[in-house]
Structure formats: structure tokens, C-alpha cells
Amino acid sequence: MARIKVGSMEIVAVQDLEASFPVAGVFPDVPAEAWTAYRPIYPASFQDENLRLNIGSFVIAGGGQTILVDTGLGPKTNPEMPGKLVDNLKADGISVDDISTVIFTHLHIDHVGWNFQDGKATFPRARYVVQQADWDHFSAQKDDAVVQAQVVPLQATGALNLVSGETQLTPEITLVPTPGHTPGHQSIVVSSGGERAFIAGDVGHHPAQVQETGWHVGFDNDGPMASATRKRVMEQLEQDGTRGCFGHFPAPGFGLIVRDGGRRVFRAL
Fold it and tell me: In the CATH hierarchy, which top-level class contains the domain 2-268?
């Protein structure tokens, strides 16, 4: 486990699992030779010819709340890669009953997998916060078994909170739209005591995208919009010196975006 302090708030990185995927399967439009420069910069992000991707969540603690950002791939979504999120939460002293709010950056399967187990809510005391645009997009996917098992039942809990646009959730936490990867993708700004952190969701999947903002993944809903959003976010994080929190970067995913040799790089904390 790893954590950072943001004023009076704390952000804890919690891994569900790590997996490797063929480069071309994740970034189908990026030629193989384009990765050469990034292998020595980010060795932990590669495994032979594959990319190593963390599937991680974050817990924001403070202000009387314990907030979970995304719920991972889950224990049963892919039997060959069972997630360990709940066990890892327990290892850090966080029980499922402690979670007061679940914020979804978006509703892809690797961000919703622990919502329900055998039809029962994994986090029974939580409210669930998602952008209306993402809810509309995903809840309409009647033939997607994961959506039907892990997303649609949120409505019956009575704890589903749909928001639209930038939303201040608490005095320290603001939800900001970062669309492209999905229609209602959102990121989370944590601000306290003059300090800030930015939980980016899938604005970036690999640290090379800090510089290569035009590289978009094959499962972006709108690749050009995702690239434009990523460019804006990376430039802002570099300019402000805000700490970034990236769930798909090598765990724990905390870092700063800085200049090195004329290019932007992700410098892990």
C-alpha cells in the first residue's frame, strides 16, 4: 500500500490486480518502434513485448468520509485474473462497511467489477456517484453481461447519485468532466490546505502518454476527444505541479509531471 497526504486529506492507492497485455491490443494505432524511447524511461511498464498495466483504485479519507474511487475488475469478471481489491482494503484496515461513497471515473468493466457479489452490494453503506452521460451510455447496453450484473443494479440500491458536469462533492473533493475515453468520464480533484491532487481515471493508461498525448487506446469511445482531454490535463498538471494519481500506471500510481530532456515525463513519488 502507498499513500499521500493532501492537506488534511489522505489518498491511499489500493491495487486490484496487475496484468500484461499485447502492446498492439491496447494501442493499435501506435507503431512498435515508437515505444523504443520509453522502455528505458518506464521499465516497470513493460514485460517483454507486452505492456504491464496496473488495475488500481484509490481511497480518499478525511472530512469524516472514506471514499473509494473505482472498484476494479472484480473477483469473477475474468476468472483467470481474479481481483484482490477487498482483501487489499482489509490489509490496510479498511472494511467494506467503512466506504461511505464510491465514485466512478467511468463505467468500463475494470472499474466496476466489485460493485456486487452474488447480487449483493459489496459496499452496502455507500452511495454511488457517476456522471449522467456515462450512466446513459452504459445502462443502455442490454447485451453486456458485466454491465447488467455490476452497473444496472446500482439503480435499485436507492443510493445511485447521477451528476452532470463539474460537481463539488465535498469541500475538499470536486468532480471534473474529462470526456473522450467514455462519454461521461470524470476525474477527481482533491484540494486541502493549499495542496492538490488529481485522480485521473483513464485519462492515461501508460506513462508514455504524458508526452504522447495523441496516443489513444483502442477502447476509447472518442479517440480525438480523449487525446484533446489528455493534452489539456497533462499540460495543466505540469504547469500547476499538482500530483497525479493514475490507476493504470505502475502501482501505486502517484507522481509529478515534469520536464526532462525536452519532454514531459511522469516522475513517480
Answer: alpha beta
For residues 127 and 150, what is the distance between their CA atoms, to the nearest angstrom? 15
Rounded to an integer, what distance in angstroms lies between the CA atom of residue 77 and that of residue 235?
35
Residues 6+ apart with CB under 8 A from 88: 1, 14, 15, 16
Q: Report which of 240, 238, 246 is spatially closest to residue 265, judged by C-alpha positions.
A: 238
DSSP 229: H
CA dist., res. 209 & res. 51, Å (int): 13
CB atoms within 10 A of CB 89: 24
pLDDT in tens, 84-113: 999 999 999 999 999 999 999 999 999 999
Residue 198 CB: number of other CB atoms within 10 A? Answer: 23
